[in-house]
Each structure stands twice: as C-alpha cells, then as structure tokens.
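Notes, Module 5: Reading structure tokens.

Key idea: the token line is not a picture. It is a compressed description, and you learn to read it the same way you learned to read a sequence, by spotting repeated patterns. We will look at two proteins. The first is printed below with its tokens.
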Amino acid sequence: MGFLKRSFISICRQPVKSGIFFFLITILSILSARAIFVRQAIVNTDQNLRSMMPSISTIVQDNQVVEEGEEFAILSLDVILQIGDFPQVRSFDYSINLRWGVSASELNPWDNLDFAPSPMSWKYDEEFGVHLIVEGVSSPSFLDIREDFLELINGRGFTESELATNDLPYPVVISTGLAEVNDFEIGSIFEAQVLVFDHIERTDGSLAVNQDEPPLIKESFTLEVVGIFKPAFPTLPADATLDEAFQQDILQYQMHHRLFVPNIVAEKMFNVRAQGDLEPDDVFFQNFFLLHDPHDFEEFSLAVQNLPGNWLVADFSSGFRDISAAMINVGDVADFIFFMTTGATLILTALLVVLFLHDRKHEVGIYLALGENKQKIIVQMILELIPLAILGMALALFVGNVLADALS
C-alpha cells in the first residue's frame, strides 16, 4: 500500500484524534486571523473617518506680529491661487463675505417654528426688512456644493460668464427656507439693499452703528434666483439645553438667510459698504482649503509659513487627529496581540504535532520493520496533518473576516 493511501486511511481511521487536531488548529488560527482582521478593521475605520471628516483650513495673518507693530496685511488673490496649487490641497475656494449691512425689505424672514423664543429682533427690522448674509463664490460649482456641504436641490450654480460680468439682474443661490416663505422659484427676482449707517460713540469709548438716523448710503441690488440649496444642520441631542437650542436656532437662521453670489457682485456690495473707498488690493477674501488628508495639515501649515508674510493656518478639523491618534494606539495594541497570538499558535501547533507523532511511535516502528523508507513515513505524517490544517485555517479566515466586518 502506498504512503499516500495510508495517510488518507489514517485520517479516516482515527476520526477522534483528527477531529481534535482540526478543532485545535481552527481555534488557534481564528485567534491569529481575528487579530489580522481587527487590524484591517481599524485601518478601514480610519480611512472612513478621513473621508467623512474633511480637513478644512483657512489662512490668516499672525496676530502676534500685528500686536508687535507690523502693518495689517491682506492675503492677496495671487497668493491664494498659489496656495491652491500645493500638493496637499484637494480643493479650495475664496469668497468675499458680508455678514452685516445687507437687508431686503420685500422679503419674509424664515422662522424656526420649533423654537419658542423665535423670532428675534436681530433677524428682522421693521423698516429695512430681513437681515441677509452674502457670500461670494469664485467657481461655477463652489466648494460648499462641490464637497456636499450643501445640497443643490433645484436650479444650478453659476456660469463662467456670470462670475466674470456685472450683468443685471445678478444671479443668486438661496436656501429652501427663504424660497418657501417667499414663494420663490427659479427665475424669481427680488431686491437686496446694502446699508451704511453713521456711528455713535458709546460711554466706554467704543463705536456703535446708529440706526436711529437714516442710512448714509442705501444702494439696491437686483437679484435673480438661479439655484436653491438645502442647508445641513447638526442634530441636537434629545437632552439639549435651552442655550444649545438657541445656538442651533442662530445657526439655522444664518444658513437659511445666506445668499451665494459671484465674487464680483459681492465685491460691489462690499465696496458700497466701504463707502466707495475700496481699492483692488484692499479686497479681503475669506479663504478655504480642503486637504486630501487631515494628516497633511502639519506639512501644509509649514509650506504656508514659508511664504512671504506672516501667515498662520487655522485648522477646523483638529478633532480628527485626536481620534486618529487614539486609533493608531489601538492599532499598535492589535499588532502586539497579533504577534503574540501568532507566536503562541506556532508553538502550540508544533507541540500538537510532536504529541501526535509521539502517540504513533509504535506504528512508525512497524513501518520501519517492514522496510519502509524514512522519508516516505515523514511525508505520510505531514500529508495527514496538512489537509486538516488547511481546512482549519480556511474556516478561521472566514470566521475572522465576518467578525472584522461586524466590528468595522
């Protein structure tokens, strides 16, 4: 009888021993496989977090150098475009923002009916109407929509010609809330006014806007709705405090009363508010840089600091690095567990093989007495163990993969 046939018969002849060996190999392999797949689950979770928590940065002048006497500087458009070409940058945008001084007397304000203290006086003025927030954009598909921070549910963004010309009426993208309360649709036209008031001195010496007197400047801008977006808001917890609900109400108001216009239009509005004194080099662009990976921030920040001027990079995603650092530590623990379990598996498997062979020393002696070749006896023993080991490891990989998928 050949040694191949003998190995097969030996497996079937000793089902209990074969079963025990198969069971032990499977359990030991599951421990190693689980460590591997847990490590992979940690890597997958880290990648998912990076895609879900984009790294957004903005560049500002270092306040310390201003306090030390250096003249306040404005980040020019040329430098913004230069930074946008850095390898760490996935996407970027720049805009002119007007967070006060723009109103619309013809519009109805959006109100949060779920929040009892609304409406609030700062949202609406009996004489000048709804307070609006204007944000200029530089590209047809601007960053908020391009990166799915907002959802454009109707209409479109801006065309290249609209971004470069001042043709009336000026295009605007508005929120669903503002569209609903004013029955606006694509093509609707309304007027927004830029107001400039005189200032009065408070008792503490600071200046305040004097709205008791008529505005010094009031210029209207005719706007045509070309797109309607749906704002996104964080979900309040069920046990949110009144202050948290109040902050959420402010955020919702700001989002629903936010107008997106081409930068060229926002610049005209800004120049009105500056009472016509704005020079091209004085235009302040709010900048946003979305990085490929939150871990690129340090390298990106160093590259910006090497540019002429004293610039700092403000990071809006530092929380991710705290989470990522914790996950790296967990990954290190998983690696340690993997090496420990793999080492233990190899040692225990070797002991099992020795025990099984020791149990069959009389059988080996009979084979030798019958003139069987030693090499063939060794191959026979190996062939008896290999199928059981392969089946056990295959089952372990399947179980470990299922557990890792459930974990990640």
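Here is the second protein, with the sequence above and the tokens below, as before.
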Amino acid sequence: MYDDFETNTSYKYLQVVIKALKEPICMLGGWAVYFQVNKNYKNIQGRDYLGSRDIDLGFHINKKWTSEQIKNSSLAQSLDILKNKLNFKSLTFRLIKEIHVESGKEILNHEKVFPHQRFIMSVDPIVDFIPSNFKQIFGFIPIDEPLLKFVFENPKYRTKLKEFNKKLLLPKPELLLATKLKSITQRDKEDKKIKDLCDIFALLWYSGKIPRVLRNNAIKLVSQKEIKKTISKIKDEDYKKASAQLNHSSQEIRRVIETLALS
C-alpha cells in the first residue's frame, strides 16, 4: 500500500516526536491502530501490521478555556516544540518535513530536488473542539474530531502504553473504530480509503476484542444508521485491494465488516 521508505521514515520521526513532546501523548490515526493491533497481527501473520505515512496527534481543548489558557495548552507547547526544536514547517493545518527518498535526509531550503525524490513527512494535530479564536491564536484551522473528547474526559475510552520511554494515551479500539467509520467515506484519496478499510478490519479481528462487543460499543459513538450507510459505500474492488494488504480473503474481510451493519 505505502512504500516501505515512507512508513519506515514516518516511524523514525514518530520516535523523534514522541521523545521530544511532553507526556502523556495522545496517538490517533494509523499509528494508534498499529499500536492496538500489531502484537496479535504479528503473532498470527508473522509480520508487522501496516504502518502509516502520517503522524496524528490528539489534543484536548476545553470549551471554557480563556485565550490565555489555550496559549499555554499542551497543543501550544507541542506546536512550539515541533516547529522550533524539531524544525517542522507549517503547511496549512499540517507540520511537515521534506525528506529525500534516496538519502533519507531532510531536504534543506536551498536544495534543488525533483518532485519524485521528495517525500512529505507530516504531523497532523487534531483537536476535540475548535474555539472561535483558534485561528487568531495559532494562524490555522486544525482537523477536529469531537470523539476525541472521550479519550481525555473518560478513562474507559483510553488505554495507556509506554513506548519509546514515554507514556502514550491510545483511544480504545471501539473509539478508533468509530473514527475510522466516520473518516472512510470522507477520503478523497484511494490509498487512504483502503488504509481505513484495513484498519477497520484489523480493529475487529486483531484488537483482542470480540467483534460483536466492539460493534455494540461503537454504536454508542456512531449511530447504526451511519454505520450501515458507510458500509453500503464500500465496493467489491475496495475489499479486493484491502485483501492484498492484509493476507485475508476479500470475502472474509467483507463478512467481518458487514457484521457491523447487523441490527
């Protein structure tokens, strides 16, 4: 799905980012799924689960916070570290590094590099709430994921993991499943859609949770109607492409995922 260079580079910088930021650090997206399923996946498949190209980090913003509290939040401190200590550059809502695909080194501003030699390594800050003065304070509008608030406000929706000698907060599988069910229909790039499909299956099959229980818990976060609508949009070709990545038949992937739509 993704080039090994891209996922290996992403994992390399994931370590750098986690080690630099203040703990606890909330992981989201593909790497959060990786940490939730990789042990079981590797035990059965004999290889690591799919990596991610991007690093998604979750941050809490209280609706009642003043501008001063927002400026001193974990998000603000993390953005400062990423930009001023780790030298990530701002690009809309993302923080990026440009990496040379042949040398693996960061591309400096003055270097002339062809587009095919350039890999954009990105860190995406994601918040549970966007206050009206966010852009005024930070200069951009971030990705928001309202379900993220449960991770920070209710311990039953998170697990704790020590990785790279830092404490990580991981959304529980049912919450990750809910976010993936929401995002898959919004993808404009095919590779991200197929990765979401793989992640949905992996959470159901390899998280250690009974799929029926995961479904029942996910329904508390995303309505059954939304789930059915999402699954109805997944095409035969999508299941075949996911099969090529997961070492499961497309029929098995479909069967497992379609259990989410059962009443």
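Summary for the second protein:
- Strands lie at 25-28, 55-59, 89-91, 94-100, 118-127, 143-144, 158-163, 166-171.
- The chain has a mean pLDDT of 94.
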